[in-house]
Amino acid sequence: MPRLDPSVVGRSSRLRARGAETIGRALHIIRTRHGSFTVGGGIFLAIVSALILSPWLSPYDPNAQELLQRLSSPSTQHWLGTDQFGRDVLSRLLIGGRFSVTVAAATIALSVIFGTILGVLCARAGGMVDEVTMRIVDLLIAFPDVLVALFLIALIGPGHVALIAALTVVGWTPFARMARSLALEINAKDYIMAAEVLGCSRSFIIFRHVIPNAYRPIAAITFLRFGHKLITVGALSFLGLGVQPPNSDWGAMLADALRFVERAPLLAFSPGFAIFITALAVTLIGQGLEAEVKPRKDQRESILGTESPSEGEETMKA
Asked: What is the distance between the alpha carbons of residues 15 and 17, in angstroms, rounded to a whole number?
């Protein structure tokens, strides 16, 4: 009987232990999270997995036309039917979802990075820099996102790059405002003052102390704004400012289906429901994160209240 190499046995046992530890941590996170976070995270994970695997899950070429099968009802061959050119709706829904979700994700990522860093820098700098930046934020917030995006896309031209740029220009403002308010609160903490006394640089304080202590509320608003950006992407694509034919996305599919809504209502329902369920999933994630942040703050205040009674209570006890 051949002898097993002890190093191989030890490596396999360490891998099994590491895998069991990872699974245990994941189960602990699922059990301890808020219910809406778990539900929304499960739905969003399923949607993202389907979109990533869409080249293999799509039963047909999304641009292949079969005019003899145009506007056909759902069947075993075409689960969601076909559109006005005989193209498979399910395939176009899966491939088109990659564009809509990718544009919304790229927009929200750029907005979070730029807005958070700018808001924290304004809180640290103060003075005229802070005042001018916040007035610019107020000015951009005063205009609707779609209106500013329409103006910028009219200058740049349609396409996914122009769409991301236009939505990022108007999307960073809420993150800058929240990051600034959180940074002002964190800057008054004792460990920030200690770091300043020790001579730590401004960049070290920002990226080592301020941003890590502000990421939870920012993560909550990120998911809440993700659903809004997804709907905005769908609205702009509905107006013809997104992906150009023959490619598809959810907003463009919804626009094409309006002419045939009486004959083939599922043609309009499918992309509309995809936008709705994805926006609902990320909103549930954001609400779950927000619900976790608020109780901890209330609990901390209640603990401080019990440990430090008011002067009236001390007088009565005396």
From this structure: 5
CB 234 within 8 A of CB 100: yes
pLDDT digits (tens, 9 = 90+) for 84-141: 888 888 888 998 888 889 989 999 999 999 998 888 888 888 788 888 888 888 888 8
Residue 24 backbone class (left: φ over 0; alpha: ψ -120 to 50; beta: rest): alpha
Q: Yes or no: say if 249 and 255 are a contact pair by the CB < 8 Å rule.
A: no
Region for residue 240 given its phi and psi (left: phi exceeds 0; alpha: psi -120 to 50; beta: otherwise): left
Report the pLDDT value the prediction gives residue 44, as an integer from 0 to 100.
Answer: 92
Return the half-sphere exposure (C-beta side, CA atoms, 13 A cut-off) of residue 111: 30
Least confident of 11-15, 50-54, 208-212: 11-15
Residue 238, exposed/middle/buried by CB under 10 A (0-12, 13-18, 19+)?
Answer: buried
In the block, which residue shows the tokens 């190499």?
5
Domain ranges of the chain: 54-302
CATH for 54-302, among 3.90.550.10, 3.40.50.10540, 3.90.1150.30, 1.10.3720.10? 1.10.3720.10
What pTM value is reported for the model? Answer: 0.76
Rounded CA separation 23/25 (Å)? 5
pLDDT for 60 beyond 60? yes
Residue 155 CB-density burial (10 A; 0-12 exposed, 13-18 middle, 19+ buried): exposed
